[in-house]
Design a protein that fits this description.
Radius of gyration: 23 Å
Order of helices and strands: HHHHHHHHEEHEEHEHEHE
CATH class of the largest domain: Alpha Beta
CATH architecture of the largest domain: Alpha-Beta Horseshoe
Strand order of the largest sheet: 1-2-3-4-5-6-7
Helix content: 40-55%
Number of strands: 7
CATH topology of the largest domain: Leucine-rich repeat, LRR (right-handed beta-alpha superhelix)
Structural class: alpha/beta
């Protein structure tokens, strides 16, 4: 599974390639309206764009499988990116084999592709920089006309010094931490070096910032059920990564106390079994759940799907597919 995660992270490098080719292809169609421009040049451009977009989408699905992404932005980014790959491939086929039709629709399809590229990039930016990344520096009239006023939450307006203090404390304690944006006091926090056990002192610093943390990543941190006792204080948490720890069904009951949790990754916690289905089903805000290589059976996953049709449960891959030995996460 780590191989999939590794390949998935190449997505953030590969995504620039199809964007560049698509922009050149649209520009070529706009200027190459005379017969002196060879038709095959455009065919090659759109063909290359289709291949690059398809590879980028595959890597994107692998990256998304790692979990811990804001559900709404991740879903929109995935959908727009997939649509872009399909549209570009379709345009290449029409241009290659039905050029007479393509000549009539090239302007509309070019604008469509530019729109989808923009939306894909917008939601991708939301994932990496927060939903107010585009709007926070725009002039007020532009924000008002475009409906891009910065997102306001209960955390927005928290004193700058207080948020900065939490970030500094977390950094000193061995976490990676940043604010969602200048206009949003929420914090995105993850362990700096996965693979080493988190200490009580680190948990204490993390708990002190609990009301501000909106996304938290603690993979391979040696966490046990008792370490989750303070999670009830994380009242703003929407995304949580706990993959490859030592959590059992008792810990899942504690996770059910999180009131706003939308994305949960518990991959590799083999102590989580079918007994956790009821607790998971009670997490009403949960929208995406990763349960690869846990003790939850396929039948229980199907049962959870029936109880919560609004919940996407990702756990159907075979346990031996690119996975480390099960005992590596439970020693």
């Amino acid at each position: 599974m780590n191989l999939i995660y590794f390949l998935g992270r190449l997505h953030v490098l590969a995504l620039h390639v199809p964007i560049g080719i698509v922009l050149v292809a649209v520009l070529f169609d706009a200027v190459a309206r005379r017969d002196r421009y060879p038709k095959t040049a455009g065919d090659y451009l759109w063909g290359a764009a289709a291949v690059a977009a398809s590879i980028t989408v595959i890597l994107g699905y692998m990256h998304l499988a790692e979990g811990g992404f804001a559900a709404a932005s991740a879903t929109a980014h995935r959908n727009y990116g997939t649509a872009l790959a399909l549209i570009v491939a379709g345009l290449w086929a029409i241009r290659r084999y039905r050029y007479s039709i393509y000549r009539k629709i090239w302007m509309f399809t070019g604008l469509l592709v530019l729109f989808v590229v923009t939306m894909t990039g917008h939601y991708g930016g939301n994932l990496t920089h927060g939903s107010s990344f585009l709007s926070e520096l725009a002039p007020r009239p532009v924000r008002w006309l475009a409906g891009l006023e910065p997102r306001r939450t209960a955390l927005t307006g928290a004193p700058e010094t207080r948020a900065h203090s939490h970030v500094e404390n977390l950094l000193r304690a061995g976490f990676v931490a940043r604010r969602v944006s200048e206009d949003d006091g929420g914090l995105i926090v993850s362990i700096d070096a996965p693979g080493g056990e988190i200490t009580p002192a680190q948990l204490s610093v993390l708990t002190a910032a609990s009301e501000h943390v909106v996304e938290l990543g603690l993979p391979r941190a040696g966490l046990r059920d008792g370490d989750l006792q303070g999670l009830a204080n994380f009242t703003s948490l929407t995304a949580l990564r706990l993959d490859q720890n030592r959590i059992t069904d008792s810990g899942v009951k504690l996770l059910a106390l999180l009131p706003k949790l939308e994305v949960l990754n518990v991959y590799g916690n083999t102590g989580i079994t079918d007994a956790s289905i009821d607790a998971l089903a009670r997490m009403r805000e949960l929208r995406v759940l990763y349960v690869w290589n846990t003790g939850i059976s396929p039948a229980a996953i199907s049962s959870l799907g029936a109880l919560r049709p609004d919940l996407t449960v990702v756990g159907a891959l075979a346990d031996d597919l690119f996975l480390e030995p099960a005992d590596s996460a439970a020693d």
